[in-house]
Task: structure prediction
Amino acid sequence: MGIKESGVYYMTIAELKSSGTAMSGQGLRVSGNVVNGSIEDIAKELILKFRVKDEEGPDNVFVNVFYKGVKPDSFKEDVQVILEGKYDSARNLLTATTLLVKCPSRYEGEAPPEDHDYSNKKKRLEVKPGAN
Amino acid sequence: MLIEIGRASLNIVLVMSVYVIVASLLGVFKKDLRFVASARRGIYSIFILATVSSAILLHAFITNNFAVKYVAGYSERDLNIHYKIAAFWGGNDGSLLFWIFGLSIFAALMSFQNRKDDDHKFIPYTYVVIMVVMIFFLILTSFITNPFDLYPGGQLPRDGRGLNPMLQTFGMMFHPPALLWGYVAFTIPFAFAVAALITRELDSTWILKTRKWTLFAWVLLGIGNIMGAEWAYDELGWGGFWAWDPVENASFIPWLTATAYLHSVMIQERRNMLKIWNMFLIVITFALTIFGTFLVRSGVLQSVHDFGVSEMGPFFIVFMAIMSAIAFGLIIYRYDDLKSDNNQLESFLSRESTFLLNNLILLALAFATLWGTLFPLISEVITGNKITVGPPFFEQVNTPLFLILLIITGICPLIGWRKASAENLKRNFILPAIFMVAALVLLAALGMRHIYAILCFSFSSFVLVTIFMEYYRGIRARGRLKGEGPVKALAMLFWKNKRRYGGYFIHIGIVLVFIGATGSSAFVTENAKSMKLGESMSVGNYTLKYEKIKGREKPNYEAIVAFLSVFKDGKKVDEITPEKRFYYKFPDEPTSEVALSRTLKEDLFVILASFERDGTITVKALINPLINWMWIGAVIAVIGGFYVLLPDGKKKRSTA
Result:
């Protein structure tokens, strides 16, 4: 009970691409990595466009993503994301209703943490209202 | 040096745990109580050693001893002192030590409570079971993830890696400890159950001896769950408090089975029924606490917040399998003894049967939640496709169950034990039913169309009226019999019959949690907008005006803070400051600090989603009606829980 209507297929990008039209219009959950240089961030309209590919997969096997909503905090290039939405195979476009970023697992190796210099930290945060 | 003492203490605890098992068994087989007494003292020494060990790790955190890998991995110089303390349980190694520390306290307390009962047949076996659990965790900390491991070659990093920004929040101080110790505390009733099975002492003794323990574990686990919800609401910044994420479900499922157990043991105490069922419930609850730990740490399921993924998953699943196999094996072995004597349900209209229904619903909830959580794994095995189910599944399946549970909470106390008469029903049901129907009609007339919400609110009024009726009747009866005034009578009711009237008090809290959860999930209003300085946006009947934006520096992070004025119906009611924080140690993980404008009616929940260099900000705002009743209800339930934990006093429990 319930699963039929509310369950979604959990797929990799390669699986989705090779499914042909079978998955068109289906509720899907896809995980993949954001392709470098593919992010188009239209913050003022709360729209994000980017491509995702499988973590280990080749760059040319990708799906276009359209997402309208608030950009998650740690969203950026090359992070692993989990997307939920519907897939249009004709346009190779996933219209996502949910965008979650998976936090990278903590690195806990043998080596001690390296020292970092944070002296240039402030530059990023300069905000000048009305400057543009 | 200190670190070596910490490590050594933990190793001695391992040796002592083995000793306690040997001594307890010798006590049983040689029928020599001196061995049992020695085992008990062994448990005390374990408590002392585990405390020393934990104190040393805490000291390492406070003094920034980054030679210790675990400290360097989860702390940093500039971390606020209370987060340094909380970093203790920020990762695997420390939370396991914290687990051991908790178990050592509870074991010592429990054996101290029973110090005069060394001759009681099953006490030594409880020691054995508890120490087996202890040894499992000690093996993990001693050989796999030792919190006292140092960097090789005595390297001493200048600073640590820092604590994950999402953990640098108020909730981190209380959510993990409550959850972990709640899990741990279930070991005690589990140990008594297994001991009772082994020794064939299957009357209610083990249940009576662990009544408070079970309640204590239940309260802690409840605190852990609700603090987790509060944390998600406050920190994760998506506007809700519960996402039916595997990690959340993992701690909710054992709480459901424990709730069932708390109720069903009352039937065994009173009617000597349901012995097998109670055994089953406590074993399954214990197994689920271990399974929950497995889910959280193994990473087998996709979760948004897998902080502590490690290689330890298989250990937990194997341990859980072995412990439940033994326990269920014993239940089957003792099946003939457990079959209740000729006590049967005399009527469907009896308190026993409403308790049973309550149990079935709670178990159904637990099962549905577990099923949904594991569905990706199940479907992959069966169909080859990994199918996940999200919040819609859980809401569809669980909401009706929750509603039935809610109404039973009201019906149950109205029905007498054994068999309720028609007269009894009429007398008890009329008033609450009137209130329920009135609430239903009123809400529908006011235009509410969310059917589940209408049902929840009207059922809630039913339950609250039944509870107030119970208090009123108790007060009136005492007034008649002892001539006490209402205030004194109420106080005496609470004092003389803690479980009953404290229990109702917990129910009031739970009803409020239902109301808050329903209001805030069924009637959310939201809006998102990008604004330039001086611009405004509206959400519901609130208007947010963007006044200014400022940078702010703290020792371990800096933040961009947006200043917004809140207007309601044209009047300025509040100023709020959502911010975006950039922790120096986690440059890739900016975190949004939610700003809240709280009232009893609703929360205005505001997130600074993004900002541009030119000062343009994008803000998401939500209105969450009634949500604060959830936290208020939780506090009431916890107060009620701790109140019922108070000693019963000399007087025999009255049987009203």
In short: The CA atoms of residues 564 and 615 of chain B lie 13 Å apart. The first helix of chain B runs from residue 2 to 29.
